[in-house]
Amino acid sequence: MKLFAIRDESEKDKPILGYLVYYEKDKNFYIELPENADPWRIPLLLSSFAKRGEQTVNAYWSKLWVQQRIVPSDRQNIGKILKENGLNEYDEYELLMLGQGRCAQDDYYLEALPENELPKEVAKRFQNRVEDVVPLKDRQLLVFFRDGMVRKCDMRPFFEKESKFLPLLNNQEYFCKVAVAPGGYGICWGEMITISDKELYKYGVEIGLSMDDFRDFVSHRVVNAAEAAEIQECSRQNIGDLVQREKLHPIKREAKSTLFLKSEVVQRKWM
C-alpha cells in the first residue's frame, strides 16, 4: 500500500485536503477525506462526497479523479509519450507519479507519506473495513469486520433495488464468487459490482456464529498450499518461505497438507 497527501499548491499553508491510497497488486485507488473536509477547497470531483458527509471515496470515483490528472489511454500518440517517459505500458499510477499528481487544470499535487502518518481519525476507519466474507444460502452473507464484529446480511432486498444486482439474484454460483475488495473497503464481484463496508455494517445484523456458518466458512475460505501459491502467483516453495519467515500463518499443518485462511493469503498479495 502507498499513501499520499493531496495538497493545494496555491494555498499558503498547503493544507492536506485528502489522502490517496494505492494498492499496488490490484492497482486500485481510494481517497480518504478528513472529517472536516471543506467542499469548496477539495477537488471538485470529490466535493459531493464531503457535502453528503462521506469521508471515503469509492474506488470508481477515486480512479476517475486519478484519470483526470494523467494523459488518457486513447491519446493518439500515447505510444510515443510512454516511450519518452520510460514506460513499457500504460500504467495509471506511474503516469500519476511523473508529475507528482499535478495537472494543468488546478493546483493540486501529491506528497508521499509513510503509512504511520495517517491521522487517527482516518486510521480508525480502517478498523471497520471488511476482513472476510462468506456466502451462505438464500443470498445471505456472513461478513467479518476488522473490529471483531460479525454480521449476517440478507442481500435479497438489497439486490432487488438495482438491476445491476440481478445476476446475483438469479445465479447462486455467481453469488458465491463474492470477494473482499482490496483494502477491505467492501465486497465485490469483479470490478463492476461492489458493496461498501459502510453499507454492509449498516444493514447487517450482528450475530454469533453457528456450526453451519462455520462449515460454510471453511468450505469457501480455507485454501491449501497449491491454491495459496496460485493466488500469490508464486511457487509452493515461496509459500513455504513465507511460512518460515512468519509472513503467512497456517491454520493447520500436516505432513502432506498445509491449510491457510484465504483472506490472509489475499491480503498478503496486497502488500
- Helix and strand element order: EEEHEHHHEHEEEHHHEEEHEHEHHEEH
Oligomer category? single chain
Rounded mean pLDDT is 88
**Total count of domains:** 3
Beta-strand content estimate: 15-25%
**How are strands sequenced across the largest beta sheet?**
4-3-2-1-5
The separation of the N and C termini measures 6 Å
Derived from helix and strand composition plus strand pairing, the structural class reads alpha+beta
Give the overall form. Answer: globular
| Poorly predicted regions | none
What share of the residues lie within helices? Answer: 25-40%
Number of strands: 15
Question: What's the gyration radius in Å?
Answer: 21 Å
Largest sheet: 5 strands, antiparallel
Secondary structure tally, helices: 13
Topology, please?
Blueprint lengths: L1 E7 L7 E8 L4 E5 L11 H8 L4 E2 L1 H9 L10 H7 L7 H7 L9 E6 L6 H7 L3 E6 L4 E6 L4 E5 L1 H4 L6 H5 L1 H4 L3 E2 L5 E4 L3 E4 H7 L1 E2 L4 H11 E3 H8 L3 H9 L7 E2 L4 E4 H9 L1
Antiparallel strand pairs: 1-2, 1-5, 2-3, 3-4, 6-7, 7-8, 8-12, 9-10, 10-11, 13-15, 14-15
Helix pairs in contact: 11-12
